[in-house]
Design a protein that fits this description.
- By secondary structure, this protein is α/β, with parallel strands linked by helices.
- The protein is 31% helix and 22% strand.
- The chain contains 7 helices and 9 strands; from the N terminus they run αβαβαβαβαβαββαββ.
- It is globular.
- The N and C termini lie far apart (58 Å).
- The chain binds 5-O-phosphono-beta-D-ribofuranosylamine.
- The site of 5-O-phosphono-beta-D-ribofuranosylamine has 15 residues, from helix 2, strand 5 and helix 7.
Amino acid sequence: MHRAMIQARKKRVAVLISGRGSNMQALVEAARAPDYPAEIALVVSNRPEAPGLAWAKAQGLATLALNHKLYESREHFEGQLQSVLELSRIDLVALAGFLRLMTAPFVERWQGRMINIHPSLLPAFKGLHTHEQALAAGVRISGCTVHFVTPEMDGGPIIAQAAVPVLPDDTPETLADRVLAAEHKLYPTALARVARDQAAWTGDVVSVQLVENAGVNQEQALFSPWPPRAGY
Ligand code: GRF
């Protein structure tokens, strides 16, 4: 059979942003690969002036500015968003720096089909100012998490995580940069996993299928601070 005929249909993804959109950009770039299981069918920003929206438009992607300030309530805003997602036949929603809390009914309608990226190793450091929180707590390792969205902010079941060391001279900015670089790798792989139905949400946790061993040493540990080359 022709290869194109046996390939599963690409999932149609809407990426929701509020600002810079560097994670959205990472998803768009990953989705250009012919064998990527999802396509970025729509980019929505609740802030018309978001730099990410201008970038997406310049790429020729379908974009929409949905200014939440023009809606009298969260429900009205979400009603409009839902219509747009339905009209665009969206399968999956990826939040990428989308700074708008959503109501439980909207979140529940997208249960198992809406994911988010958060710049900490959840369940540690939910909410805003995650890097300040991490530095204040003195953790030696931080990172990022992709999770399914539930009504509890940053509380949904975890799909994938990446860890980075916290270095002695880190500021919130230097730590944010290191975590962001990991985010740009993690989000495309996590979305692909969800799009291929390789991340099943059962009960409170997600079970993931390990598809292949891409040369990764499964025993590898991240030490921080790292031990000296020899001795202790
Ligand atoms: C990222 O750190 C993401 O984890 C968090 O908000 C930030 C968005 O950055 N949710 P960008 O807009 O993707 O560049």
